[in-house]
Design a protein that fits this description.
- By secondary structure, this protein is mainly beta.
- The strands form ten sheets. The chain has a 22-stranded antiparallel barrel. The protein has a five-stranded mixed beta sheet with strand order 10-15-16-13-14.
- Strand 24 (496-519) and strand 25 (522-547) form a beta hairpin.
- It starts with a helix and ends with a strand.
- Residues 1-52 have low confidence and may be disordered.
Length: 1016
């Protein structure tokens, strides 16, 4: 029973009392007692007066910014008659006409409001300066935002509650300055998050993920977005140094929801979305393709008259229409929470069934979470939390940037063909692509991927003395990844199967002793932490070819004529000691000093790394000489400097490693042997990143407009680089501390309340980020080549590089200067003026990472209506569109053209203003690695548009119901010719060096979502 039902119950008891008084009067009259009759008359007048005084009061509780406060307590003073505000801060309560309401909420000053026979109230609560106002999680503790000296970006659930979210990364995209998010688009697929640029060339640049104090090696996998209370991103060294060797790429802290005192909440959220692809390539249909083929090849008999007639009447295959579909997403969430002053609990569940817009791709996820928090005694508090998830994904193999990418294959395949051969197997392309049938691959040869995660923690807090607490937080992060693959002879020449299983278990124990004291104007928070982390990974893989039967798919390994298997094991440990002091003088001068020491088993001789930081801040607005300065409020100046590190190595990469090899010694028999594939590097040590930050925060117009501005410079030294040993010296690799990478940039965040009125409100947040990346040193080498995305089509040294003096991932291409009007051939620049075009004429130009990123999130409300409009934008990024190259040129992997303009607007048909070179010239060169296919990937996207209407419980009589219609990716303005300027083809290695090559990035769909949320 919720509080509104309790309210009704109190009114029932009031009416029952009045009824009993009236009944007593009647009994006394029947008995004929004059004394009883007099008293009965008195009781009857009381009852009538009580009925006359009862009124229904409706109201809304807001904070100082005009935002509704959800879950505020509204109580009739002197009674137990009360309720809580709904998701829009509204309440309805039956009270006496002369009653006084007590309105309270954690972090705000309680307020008493006299009803005075009013039926409608609007109540604004002010923040309690003595409470935890705007508490920010900073790692191993919390701090009031006003006392924060570092650069921390915060997004809470109110910022993304109006957008349907299937992955936590979507809550970060475009909403935080300094944070860049790129999603692979594949349902349940990979995501790339960068905080203030990339630091490492060879190793991961992913941030550290910490959920409720426990580090998650499983990242954001298996988290229900509806369980998130707030996300904090630690950006500067002062904030991240407390995580030492693990904080060099930034830290994402996630705080989950918990039960609240005297607040029973039961909610159910249902969403159904319809998705489709919003942009495709303009390809020739089957008849146009056949005509173009006969024309360019000079072979009028390439297709029969019957085939041409069939194609003319709509026969053949529209590969884009075949490979993409309208997809349905279902997302259901339920949450139950309650609590009293001693114990609170929160239980939630989530079921997601997400079809991808690419045929047969699907992602299912089941998530459950339970949390309990209890004050066992005045000196002992316990919190326990467990989150379990099961993911089941089916996806086509090969969404990375290579020639196995299914979009690359589909765009290259001939439309003038049939899908199946007479024997029922999938047809292959006789005219164009040399790869296997992309539809057959998608339907028959995808991978079943199962991901199970379990995250659990127990937090024990002991209040030892006044201001002194000891907390031990112990948790586990378990993940199990299984992949099952199968290839059939209906598609390939040989059938095959594969099973892969990897599990990882990480245990963490953090022991935190914190003292908080205040002496007059002096405030001190001192924290000491001793932490132990243990990680263990196990893997096993089986593969087989030439199966005796395909009836059981990938399940029977013994059916394979050729079988291979492998397994692996790794473990590592980390010991950490942390100290932090936060000093506050008069709420004006703030000092934060942090020191962390990490000892890692991954290193041999130099196991320990030391990571200090310091931050200073000045709350200028609290100075006496600015007390009466009303033009600008909340002025804060802050600066920080610190060192963080990285131990992003495999468990045994500093050891000398042997690899098995076979050698025939000139004969017909192979002999097994071992060779030194990786040299030992016992003196390898920590990669270090030094960062300086200068920031200012202030508000104007009575805090209706707030600004946060930051400038930072970040330099990574002793970068972990993998060096190649020349083959004439035996080959192999080894690690060195020698690289140097620099990032510097500017961030701005603006929070505004342009319109605040009784009926209409408009709030928005605008963020912008500028980042410039530069490779300074590569251990004496001039460059490191990125992964080659298309062997045989692109030279072995690839199309992207980490080059000294340039941004990481700079493109290395031929300069295309147009089309020779006299010959129809492509013109490439002779850069070195040696009279010929060869590999020495390539130039360094463009990069995949943007210079600027922007986000603009608008929230508007009118009565029960809410509107969310969220834009994001990117400027300065480039994409090398290899898919377009394949559709416009005749090369080995794509023997004929498929893009319409490549035929109807080439030099052969339009010599004055051709779109592309001659298709019949025998002297023309076509380079995919040229600036002809390097395109601007700037875009402006309406990321989310949501309209919601709330039906109050007073109308429905059982729940607050919020109905919504949303559209994600409603439109994208971009000059990029590909499917999506933000699509990301994840490479197999060096993700930040090899970014930006479009071999068929999974496009972000346009999605329309209907939602209904019930708060009972």
């Amino acid at each position: 029973m919720n509080n509104n039902h309790l309210t009704c119950g109190n009114n029932i008891f009031l009416r029952r009392g009045q009824f009993l008084k009236t009944l007593g009067m009647s009994v006394c009259l029947i008995a004929g007692s004059s004394f009883s009759a007099v008293n009965a008359t008195s009781l009857n007048s009381d009852a009538i007066e009580a009925v006359q005084q009862a009124i229904t009061v409706k109201g809304q509780v807001l904070d100082s910014n005009g935002d509704p406060i959800i879950g505020a307590n509204v109580l009739e003073k002197g009674t137990t008659n009360g309720t809580i505000t709904d998701m829009d801060g509204n309440f309805t309560l039956n009270v006496r006409s002369n009653a006084t309401l007590v309105v309270s909420y954690i972090g705000y000053t309680a307020q008493e409001v006299a009803v005075n026979n009013q039926r409608t109230l609007k109540i604004a609560l002010s923040e309690d300066s003595e409470a935890l106002e705007e508490v920010v999680v900073i790692g191993y503790g919390t701090v009031k935002k006003a006392d924060l000296a570092g650069a921390v970006a915060v997004v809470d659930d109110k910022n993304f509650r109006d957008q349907p979210i299937t992955h936590v990364s979507e809550a970060l995209q475009g909403r935080l300055a300094g944070v860049q998010v790129e999603n692979s688009g594949v349902p349940g697929g990979s995501v790339k998050i960068r905080v203030r640029g990339a630091n490492s060339v060879n190793k991961s640049n992913d941030p550290l993920y910490v959920v409720d104090g426990i580090v998650r090696e499983s990242g954001l996998e298996g988290i229900n977005s509806d369980d998130i209370q707030a996300i904090q991103v630690l950006k500067d060294a002062s904030s991240t140094a407390i995580y030492g060797s693990r904080g060099s790429n930034g830290v994402v802290l996630i705080t989950t929801k918990k039960g609240r005192v005297d607040q029973k909440i039961i909610s159910f959220d249902a969403e159904v979305g319809i998705s489709n692809i919003y942009k495709t390539y303009d390809l020739m249909n089957a008849y146009e393709y056949a005509q173009a083929y006969m024309d360019i090849k000079g072979n009028p008999n390439a297709f029969t008259a019957a085939e041409l007639e069939s194609y003319k009447n709509g026969g053949g295959i529209d590969w884009q229409d075949t490979m993409f579909r309208t997809a349905v997403t279902q997302n259901y969430k339920v949450a139950i929470s309650n609590g009293n002053k001693d114990t609170q609990y929160y239980i939630s569940g989530n079921y997601l069934n997400q079809d991808g817009i690419f045929v047969f791709s699907n992602n299912k996820r089941y998530t459950g979470r339970a949390n309990i928090s209890s004050d066992v005694t005045k000196w002992f508090h316990i919190t326990a939390d467990v989150n379990v998830s099961h993911g089941d994904r089916y996806s086509t193999n090969g969404w990375s940037a290579d020639k196995g990418n299914p979009i690359w294959q589909a765009i290259s395949y001939s439309p003038s063909m049939e899908m199946y051969l007479e024997d029922g197997s999938y047809a292959y392309d006789n005219y164009n692509a040399i790869g296997r049938n992309p539809y057959g691959i998608a339907k028959e040869e995808g991978s079943d991927i199962v991901i199970n995660t379990v995250n659990a923690m127990v937090d024990l807090r002991f209040n030892i003395l006044k201001g002194l607490t000891f907390t031990t937080t112990n948790g586990m992060d378990f993940s199990n990844y299984k992949s099952y693959s199968f290839s059939t002879k209906r598609v390939q020449q040989r059938n095959s199967m594969g099973n892969y299983d990897y599990q990882n278990m990480q245990l963490q124990s953090s022991n935190n002793l914190t003292y908080v004291g205040q002496w007059g104007k002096h405030g001190l928070t001192a924290t000491a932490v001793w932490e132990i982390t243990k990680n263990e990974g196990r893997s096993m893989s089986l593969s087989g070819q030439d199966l005796l039967t395909e009836s059981v798919g990938y399940w029977n390994y013994n059916l394979a004529a050729v079988r291979t298997g492998d397994n692996g094991y790794s473990d590592w440990a980390l010991l950490s000691g942390v100290g932090r002091v936060m000093y506050n003088y008069g709420d004006r001068y703030l000092l934060t000093g942090t020191f962390r020491a990490d000892g890692s088993s991954k290193f041999t001789n130099k196991k320990w790394g030391y990571f200090p930081s310091i931050a200073l801040a000045w709350n200028a607005s609290n100075e006496s000489f600015l007390k009466n300065f009303n033009a600008i409020q909340d002025i804060k100046l802050r600066t920080s400097y610190g060192i963080v590190g990285s131990q992003a190595l495999g468990s045994y990469e500093t050891l000398g490693m042997l690899s098995a090899a076979n050698y025939a010694y000139g004969g017909g028999s192979n002999y097994s042997g071992y060779w030194l594939n990786s040299l030992a590097t016992p003196d390898l040590t920590w990669e270090k990143t030094k960062q300086f930050d200068l920031g200012v925060e202030f508000s104007v117009l009575d805090r209706r407009l707030s600004f946060t501005l930051d400038y930072y410079t970040k330099t990574t030294t002793d970068a972990l680089l993998q060096k190649q040993i020349p083959h004439y010296d035996g080959g192999g690799t080894y690690w060195v501390n020698a690289g140097k990478i620099k990032n510097h940039g500017f961030e701005a965040a603006i929070n505004a309340r342009p319109v605040q009125s009784d009926k209409f409100n408009w709030n928005f947040t605008l963020t912008s980020t500028y980042n410039k990346n530069k490779v300074v040193d590569l251990a004496g080498d001039e460059y490191l080549s990125g992964t080659n995305p298309a062997a045989g089509l692109i030279p072995p040294d690839g199309v992207t590089r980490a080059q000294v003096g340039y941004p990481m991932g700079v493109f290395y291409l031929y300069q295309w200067d147009g089309i020779d009007k006299s010959t129809g051939n492509n013109i490439y620049r002779d850069v070195n003026n040696d009279g010929k075009i060869d590999s020495n004429d390539r130039i360094l130009t463009g990069k995949a990472t943007p210079d600027w990123t922007f986000g603009w999130n608008n929230s508007l409300s009118y009565g029960n209506w809410d509107l969310n409009v969220f834009f994001n934008a990117s400027l300065g990024a480039k994409r090398l569109n290899i898919v377009r190259f394949a559709g416009e040129n005749m090369v080995g992997d794509s023997r004929f053209i498929t893009i319409r303009d490549a035929y109807y607007n080439n030099w052969d048909k339009n010599k004055e203003n051709p779109y592309c070179a001659s298709q019949t010239s025998t002297t023309n060169n076509m380079y995919p690695n040229s600036t002809q296919y390097l395109e601007n990937a700037d875009f402006l996207r309406l990321q989310n548009l949501s309209l919601s209407y709330t039906l109050k419980k007073s109308v429905t009589h059982f729940a607050d119901i919020r109905l919504s219609l949303s559209c994600q990716n409603l439109f994208t303005i971009s000059g990029y010719s590909g499917m999506d300027p933000a699509a990301y083809s994840f490479s197999n290695g060096h993700a930040d060096v090899t970014s930006g090559v479009d071999m068929g990035g999974y496009p972000t769909p346009r999605t329309f979502t209907l939602g209904a949320k019930f708060n009972f």
